[in-house]
Amino acid sequence: MAQLFEFEKPIAELELKIAEIQKFSADKGIDLSQEVSTLEKKAALLKKEIYGNLEPWQKVQIARHSERPNFYDYAPLLFEDFIELKGDRLFADDRSIAGGIALFHGMPVTVIAQVKGKDTKENIKRNFGMPHPEGYRKAVRLMDQAEKFGRPILTFIDTPGAACDLGAEERGQGEAIARCLLATSGYHVPVISTVIGEGGSGGALALGVGNVLLMLENSFYSVIAPESCASILWKDTTKAKEAAAALKFTAQDLLRLGVADELVREPQGGAHNNLHQTAEELSQVISKYLVRLRLESPEALRDQRYQKLRAIGVFQETADINNMLDSDVSTES
After folding, report:
1. Are the C-beta atoms of residues 243 and 55 closer than 8 Å to each other?
2. CB within 10 Å: which end of the chain, N or C, has fewer?
3. By the 8 A CB rule, do 301 and 293 touch?
């Protein structure tokens, strides 16, 4: 049975009622098409109302849906001839980060992606999408190769955060993430980063230094997960819902704040409801930006990436505030 959230239960109950009436109609040979049509219209309006007014915490739930497509779901729909390359040439192959070379609309590209599992067994194999240092070192190795051969880099972000166990710390987790950030900031090829699910903490930021940041409609991107934020601010992880609202980390928030460049539309209710439609939307948006970026010079690409990062968090005081401050100073004088 598909995962169902609390806010989706009214929709599920109405759809169940429709199915029961259709079955009764078929079994008894009674025409109830008028009643079914009325309920179907009601269901469509209810979906539009619920999914069109999702709260930040509800978006987090959709981003974490157990059936939400991961990179391996999108790969055959976005790319041709994807060849996965493994290992960091230092320690091991981290299965929470996949990477390799592929053709995207006939163009050679390098692809790096964080990967979460769909069930417990796969999640254990992929460490629940939380990369170890060797994962980030593998990413740098593949991106260095892309720089050498002039291939655009496409990264896909979907992680609750980097691994924080003892082994990760012993092998230099912080240094590995920092090196990933440093390397990506200096490349002369186009870099497009896309958040396809949850983008949590430095584990996500490590693959987010791009010329363009795209976000699926029901994704989020933040330096901290809402549960961790609630634990720090209120010493209470049950306040994650309040933290989600305060963090302003949804795709819509980050587009408004100028951090994200564009939202990629999802089917109603989330990407898991129609993988092919989501992949088609994603393909079109990535292609649009890749065409633009390939017209830029290598130096311009690197400089634009730097300026994009520098602009995050910049703000301006309004004239009203300045006037109010001047007025206060004059009064005190």
Report:
1. no
2. N
3. yes
Cα→Cα distances 127→64, 75, 95, 118, Å: 15, 20, 8, 12
Pairing state between β 153-159 and 97-104:
unpaired
The answer to whether residue 330 sits within a structural domain is no
Domain count, the chain: 2
| CATH number for 189 | 3.90.226.10
How far is 249 from 272, CA to CA, in rounded Å? 21
Both 19 and 139 in one domain: the answer is no
* CA 55 centroid distance within chain: 17
Range of the domain at 31: 9-53
In a domain? residue 319 = no
Q: Per residue of the chain (333 residues), give pLDDT as tens.
A: 568 899 999 999 999 999 999 999 999 888 898 999 999 999 999 999 999 999 999 999 999 999 999 999 999 999 999 999 999 999 999 999 999 999 999 999 999 999 999 899 999 999 999 999 999 999 999 999 999 999 999 999 999 999 999 999 999 999 999 999 999 999 999 999 999 999 988 999 999 999 999 999 999 999 999 999 999 999 999 999 999 999 999 999 999 999 999 999 999 999 999 999 999 999 999 999 999 999 999 999 999 999 998 888 877 776 665 565 566 555 554
Cα angle for residues 92, 93, 94 (degrees, 5° grid): 115
Burial class (CB in 10 A: 0-12, 13-18, 19+), 192: buried
Inter-helix orientation angle 240-247/56-63, to 10°? 100
Q: Which residue has the tokens 């005081």?
A: 317
Same domain flag for 236 and 108: yes
Report yes or no on 139 lying in a domain: yes
The pTM assigned to this predicted structure is 0.90
107-114/97-104 β-pairing = antiparallel
Specify the pairing of strand 212-216 against strand 97-104.
unpaired
Residue written as token pair 């990264």: 155
